[in-house]
From TrEMBL:
This is Uncharacterized protein. InterPro entries: ApeA_NTD, HEPN_Apea. Residues 37-145 form the ApeA N-terminal domain. Residues 175-311 form the Apea-like HEPN domain. It comes from the Bacteria. Pfam families: ApeA_NTD1 (PF18862), HEPN_Apea (PF18739).
Amino acid sequence: MSSEVIQVTKDDLGYALRVKNIPKETIAVSNIGAELDFKLAAIASPAHAEATIVASGWLNVRPDEPKPLSWFLDQLWKITSFLALLAEKPMPPDRIELKIGAHGFVLSVLAPRPAIEYCDHREHHAFFISRTRIGDDLGRIVASWFELFPRVELPVGLALSTMASDDLWPHVRFLSLMQALEGLHRALFTGNYMAPEQYGLVKDALINAIPANVGADHRAALTSRIRYGNEIALAKRLKSLAELLPNTLRTRILGSKDIPRSWIDTRNYYTHWDEALRSNILGGQAMYDASVRLTILLRALYLQQAGMSSDTLESCLDGHSDASQHLRQLNLPEETGRAPAS
């Protein structure tokens, strides 16, 4: 919460600490036939020498018609994925309640979840994107996210689980983020060189051209490669993704106008072990720094696809979240004209 929400006053009676009453926000999501309420709650715990106020954020999901419990859990996964992109931290619920309106009952729901840590931000500026930065666009962006989610559920799951894992080795983190980036392109675009029906003729011609003396195993391997021959290369996929962002935003995130070739060669080397690529692969600090940029790139692309403006994303890079600060540090050598430290 910001300092505007928590207020401290002093009068003749002493000091008083108050959490300002923030009106709930209601967003209609026609895609799922429900309304979402975002609201703030707080619990005070006075003691002999100190007083504590613990604030909590609540999300209410109210469908237009009765739904099974599994439906509510599905919507929860969708919205917590969106919140994790904003927060720069996982946002799993630490409490789930089921309110039975007709009877006034409140039931606690116990549901298994992955062993991930809760968001531990203590200051509003620790979030990658705060509520204030989004402004009046929140309702539109949330509704758009629910429309987008069915297409990107699998790649965003890979991206967020990688971002949330603190103990990954640099190679695993980098390759997982690159895989998540490729998955995003496959979810958004067809990624073919030509129409499938046109390539069907090319595929048949190539398969028929395989010499008769090629062994069965070799023929099967060649046929498999030809089957995927209409898919564009990884470099082309990543280039088209990067170009979704305006030039200034893209350059700040990537450190250049395009995806660095070393990223692609590193991914391809550890996938195919092609020694011809070895001289251009990343290692050590360079691989770690690339993962920082990849994480921010993925976050920016998903939020942009949900309808967040480029100006808002630009302003977030000027913020005080860990990712923004780290990116600013990486870009400092380029901004000052100095070579980056090796």
